[in-house]
Amino acid sequence: MSRMLGKVAIITGGNAGIGEAVAKRVAAEGGLVVITGRRQAELDRVVLDIESKGGHALAVAGSVADEAHARDTVATALKTFGRIDGLVNNAGVGDFGKRIHETDDATWANVIDVNVTGVLRMTRAVVPHMLKQGRGSIVNISSIASVVGIPALPAYAASKGAVDALTRAIAVDYAQDGIRCNVVNPGLIDTPMAAPLMANPEQLAPILTHYLLKRPGKPEEVASMVLYLLSDEAAWVTGGTYMIDGGMTAW
């Protein structure tokens, strides 16, 4: 259990759901973790849990919609741990339940700013340091909504399609510098974001008919794939799109 031994990883949205699971898994594998998120109390809870198990973590509260936050997170990671080996762009928001004619400009702008421009900001802040090191791994968290039509979430789907494309662009631009970039596309995962759906069996049941494995995924299952892509086990892996969706996109 030491695939990330001595390596430093920044995980955005590390205060809950997939981000929390990734942070805990990286720490359990010997990594040094920097988590970000908008809610300080939740960040503190995750840090305390990691440290109680002998891991090392610190939190930087803020939003990826803030350019200064991206710079501060990187500066804090470097000051504390001296290097940055991995970045997981996980922070995201949704626009669930709105069709395109019901989506106003403010909703669209917020989703794109966090889900796409947030990836740009964090990656732009981290890459110069990875260039100096001559290596690094960036993992972006997208969604199956980038490749299949899902009702009533146009801004979210558009943002995740952009994340997929941005991932490939980063991979192409920095492969010669030793920096890898891949994207993970989860299906329905049992996270706080999905809590209203999970609590409504009548809505959940028909959705699960589209999943070959007939259940939602767990954040820890996504974390396993992210850990692989961050680690040296994936040294020959870049520019890839990895579905983790219980077979939903196999239809």
UniProtKB/TrEMBL annotation:
Uppermost EC category: oxidoreductase
Protein name: 2-(S)-hydroxypropyl-CoM dehydrogenase
Gene (name only): xecE
NCBIfam families per UniProt: PRK07231.1 (NF005559)
EC number, as in UniProt: 1.1.1.269
Keywords in alphabetical order: Oxidoreductase
SUPFAM superfamilies: NAD(P)-binding Rossmann-fold domains
Domain of life: Bacteria
Annotated source species: Nitrospira japonica
Keyword DNA damage part of the UniProt annotation: no
Domain Ketoreductase: 7-192
SMART domains tied to this protein: PKS_KR
Family label: Belongs to the short-chain dehydrogenases/reductases (SDR) family.
CDD domains assigned: SDR_c (cd05233)
GO MF annotations, alphabetized: 2-(S)-hydroxypropyl-CoM dehydrogenase activity
